[in-house]
Amino acid sequence: MQEQFYLDSYQTRLETRVLRHDAQGLVLENTLCYPLGGGQPGDRARLQLADGSHLDVIDTRRDKVSRDILHLLPPDTRMLAPGTAVTLELDWERRYRHMRVHGALHLLSAVVPHGVTGGNIGDGSGRLDFSLPEGIELDRGQIEGELNRLVAEDRVFAISMTSGERLRTQPDLIKTMSVTPPLDLPEIRLVAIDGVDLQPCGGTHVRATGEIGALTVSKIENKGARNKRVVIALLEPETMRPD
Ligand SMILES: [Zn+2]
């Protein structure tokens, strides 16, 4: 199965075919739907069939064993035969908000220079949890100012592929990453924000930080003596569809 969203996170429509459909879910030859993972929710979409009818994809997951991408349909949906032609139309407005919040969290991980212990992407807002040395306080206004400065600078997201083997020969590169990738993988996707952040990431990304738009730090919560949760939100959650 191909995973077109890795190649082009802006594609919203795809003609493909059914590989199999069973109680687990629907598997397609190729897909635009990002499966739940890395703190980002699974995509929703609409499937157009040749007879003019349509079915809703209500969630997308990755099968832990086969690694196939499973499109989840409402429980009473009829089963589609292998080979059935379908046109997949992504719920783009929701996905684009996820992409913008995801980009904002990359920036947040750079603006707050402490270890990230968790995170989550929601529809228009998101959070990261940081492990901090005791006694360190975070300044909400300063974080918000830095985030919005990086958005205004419209810095480019650059995606490249490498391997664990190649990275092992570049220890300096690993040192500059905010997260160390698992080096046993044959293929590792690196996401760089020009001059700001470099980390391995399999998510869906905007092209540049300007697309994220204005951000607010909604709250900073204490989660134990050494853990702080920083929640951010898009000030303009409605889609600004780029060309
Ligand atoms: Zn990412």
Written overview of the protein:
- Helix content is 20%, strand content 36%.
- With 243 residues, the protein is an alpha+beta fold.
- The chain has two domains: 2-90, Beta Barrel (Elongation Factor Tu (Ef-tu), domain 3); 95-234, Threonyl-trna Synthetase, Chain A, domain 2 (Threonyl-tRNA Synthetase, Chain A, domain 2).
- The strands form five sheets. A five-stranded antiparallel beta sheet has the order 3-2-9-5-6, with no helix packed on it.
- Strand 2 (13-22) and strand 3 (25-28) form a beta hairpin.
- Helix 2 (92-111) packs across helix 3.
- The radius of gyration is 19 Å and the shape is globular.
- The structure holds zinc ion.
The major sheet is characterized as:
5 strands, antiparallel
> What gap, in angstroms, lies between the N and C termini?
28 Å
Write down how many β-strands occur, each being a DSSP E stretch of 2 or more residues: 16
* Lateral strand order in the biggest sheet: 3-2-9-5-6
- Number of separate domains: 2
CATH topology of the largest domain: Threonyl-tRNA Synthetase, Chain A, domain 2
Estimate the mean pLDDT confidence: 92
Q: What is the CATH C-level name of the largest domain? A: Alpha Beta
- Assign the CATH superfamily of the largest domain: Threonyl-trna Synthetase, Chain A, domain 2
Task: Sum up the overall morphology in one term.
Answer: globular
Rg (CA only): 19 Å
* Distinct ligand kinds: zinc ion
Identify the CATH architecture of the largest domain. 2-Layer Sandwich
Unreliable stretches (pLDDT < 50, length at least 5) are: none
> Which series of helices and strands comes N to C?
EHEEEEEEEEHEEHEHHEEEE
